[in-house]
Amino acid sequence: MALANRMSMKSGLARTTVSRRCVVVRAALELKPPPYALDALEPHLSKSTLEFHWGKHHRAYVDNLNKQIAGTDLEGKTLEDIVLASWNGGSPTPAFNNAAQIWNHTFYWESLKPNGGGAPTGKLADAINASFGSYDEFKVIFRATQH
């Protein structure tokens, strides 16, 4: 109990209410903002597109997952832990879809940046050059496969 009290007081998340009990506070998952202003990707992605896709669609996954995990062993866990646990060894639980979509959308937002793009570097550039001869040739072939 002493260790729990020290940890609780150190983190500031829980307090001892009686000498032998403590209150445990579990934080809900929150919608993480994109790492740029909502209009920063214009003209490729408009501010209104981000307001809808991030502000409503992505938010719905967060809100729905918080409802699904409230009062369960998953409440208070990290998103990554929830994804792994709800995958359930290949038999996904209902929480998996929302958790995986939150992770997927967060990854998407963090993969974009204002004035981004351009030729890849490092191992990816090496692999493209080895397979296609050059990044420009890769783009020609890639565009030809689009429908």
TrEMBL record:
SUPFAM superfamilies: Fe,Mn superoxide dismutase (SOD), C-terminal domain, Fe,Mn superoxide dismutase (SOD), N-terminal domain
EC numbers: 1.15.1.1
Cellular component terms per the entry's GO annotation: chloroplast nucleoid
Pfam families: Sod_Fe_N
Key word Methyltransferase present: no
Entry keyword Oxidoreductase: yes
Full protein name: superoxide dismutase
Keyword tags: Iron, Metal-binding, Oxidoreductase
Similarity annotation: Belongs to the iron/manganese superoxide dismutase family.
PANTHER family reported for this sequence: SUPEROXIDE DISMUTASE, SUPEROXIDE DISMUTASE [FE] 2, CHLOROPLASTIC
Domain of life the protein comes from: Eukaryota
Manganese/iron superoxide dismutase N-terminal domain mapped to chain residues: 30-112
Parts forming coiled coils: none
InterPro entries: Mn/Fe_SOD, Mn/Fe_SOD_N, Mn/Fe_SOD_N_sf, SOD_C_sf
Binding positions for Mn(2+) per the UniProt entry: 53, 105
A GO term, aspect molecular function: superoxide dismutase activity
